[in-house]
Amino acid sequence: MHQAAVKICLSLLFFSITSANATEQINGQRADIVDRNGVVLATNVNTAALYAHPQELIDPKGTVEKLVQIFPDLNAKRLLSDFTGPRKFDWVKKKVSPKQKQAVLDIGEAGLGFVPREMRLYPNGHLAAHILGGARFGREDFLAAEVIGAAGIEITFDDYLRDVDNTDAPLQLSLDTNVQAEVERLLGGGMQLMNAKGAAAVLMDVHTGEVIALASLPNFDPNERPVGSGLDPDNPIFNRAVQGVYELGSTFKIFAAAQAMELEAVSPETMVGIQGPIRFGRFRIRDSFYLGEELSVSDIIVKSSHIGTARIAQMIGVDLQQQFFRDLGMLEETSLELAETSRGKPMLPKKWTELTSMTISYGHGLAVSPTHLAAGYAALANGGYKVKPTLLRKEQHNLGPRLLSEGVAKASVAMLRKVVTEGTAKRYGDVPGYEVAGKTGTSEKFTKDGYDRDRVLASYASVFPANDPEYVLVVIMDEPVNEFGIKPRRSASMTAVPIAAAITIQVAPLLGLKPNDKLDDKKWDCPKTTSINWAECFEVN
């Protein structure tokens, strides 16, 4: 008993001398993070840290062998060097579970000891990993260690979460855990089904900007956050929904139509010549298929005409188009409260020319994140008001300045509805029970050799219910290939759309939206079966 007391006293003396600030007490506590319904997403739990007094170890080699069995991530060679060298003190493991602690005690080595620690726990594992981010230990002494944010919400609100006055005041997010879980489940199954290298989804309230669910795949467990800077798109910690900036293709076309209607340059019924190609120097703007000599503005959106949209962009003009995208918030990073947002700045053209304005009108030449796109569609869906995306719970509508008249906004949603009932999203986008409006986008990825038609970014932005919009859902698939059929298909209509539809049908009831019985008799095809139970399509092992 006397020896143990002396050991602890010596350890305390050692750490009081070597601490950065011996007079300042280290606080290991941290406020909880909860979802919009109070479900705990992150909390602190009591654990233990394992240390060693190497010179008191009876069997250093045998102890190392047993410790490595308990903690396979330990470096046996380094640990043996520490245990047989001149060190008097060595941290072995900063976080030890109760089961692991008992296993260490069973070794019966007097030179090993424990001190209490608080650690960050994410009880839902991988769920909402890119939002929460993760935590790590900061300053420490023998008795305590700071728990500080490492990424995501944890680092954005680090000061609030570490404030002792907020210990009993959880940080409440806008997320709905049940909805988030369904989005991640179906997105993950769909990603596997479509052979994609990555995927992302954003579900947003169109009136408040609240993000109800945000997913990026592949993901990770914040309890064991992987190493890396977070800048590598192939690293699981890279947030595709926020950091990823992409040319989102034809999903942009509705912005050109909406702005032109707002300027009273066109109406949905205005006929626009689509003879092509449009020649601009060496550059050619073509449609994928022959669509006739002219189309109405509405049909330009429904049939997704590049030429028609470029003609509309010419009516708008370079300066006005640029200002509109600035007003939408697409020329700067989003307001989302994540540290990674600063890494998701849009990629703008070096010069905003007439040619650039035409290509941007159909989603090439301006790269933004899925969160940017969701906010843009929210402005169409909520009657024409700008919204600021947020991950914090809002009690009331949080609309910004008006960008479009109510009539133009409604006309835009009506066009998007026709895309689902008559256009490129018809096959899989029109789900039973819920009116959905949306637009597909399929853009070839740019490589050092130019655009690669076999590597695409498939995107789908949708609004529901279309008759009284409440939510916008954006789904992107990175390099998908739908192999159900005679030949591989990569278009958004065959990849992103069915996944978004599956998500909609599953989460709409969780959001309190009642299905319209008049829409329940619609046939709902599935990529691999005729079953109307879309969830079955994405139960992929």
Kindly describe this structure:
- There is one protein chain.
- Strands 1, 2, 3, 4 and 7 form a five-stranded mixed beta sheet that branches.
- The relative contact order is 0.11.
- The chain has 17 helices and 18 strands.
- It is α+β, with helices and mostly antiparallel strands.
- It has two domains: 28-162, Penicillin-binding protein 2a (Domain 2) (Alpha-Beta Complex), CATH 3.90.1310.10; 177-221 and 243-538, DD-peptidase/beta-lactamase superfamily (Beta-lactamase).
Feature tags:
alpha+beta; 5-stranded mixed beta sheet; 5-stranded antiparallel beta sheet; about 550 residues; Beta-lactamase; about 20% strand; 2 domains
Write the layout of secondary structure elements.
Blueprint: H1 2-18, E1 33-34, E2 40-52, H2 60-70, H3 76-84, E3 90-96, H4 98-107, E4 112-121, H5 129-132, E5 135-140, E6 145-149, H6 152-156, H7 158-162, E7 171-172, H8 177-193, E8 198-205, E9 211-217, H9 253-262, E10 271-273, E11 278-280, E12 283-285, E13 294-296, H10 297-303, H11 306-316, H12 318-328, H13 354-361, H14 370-381, E14 385-387, E15 399-402, H15 406-421, H16 426-429, E16 437-447, E17 450-464, E18 471-478, H17 496-507
Parallel strand pairs: 1-7
Antiparallel strand pairs: 1-2, 2-3, 2-4, 5-6, 8-9, 8-18, 10-13, 11-12, 14-15, 16-17, 17-18
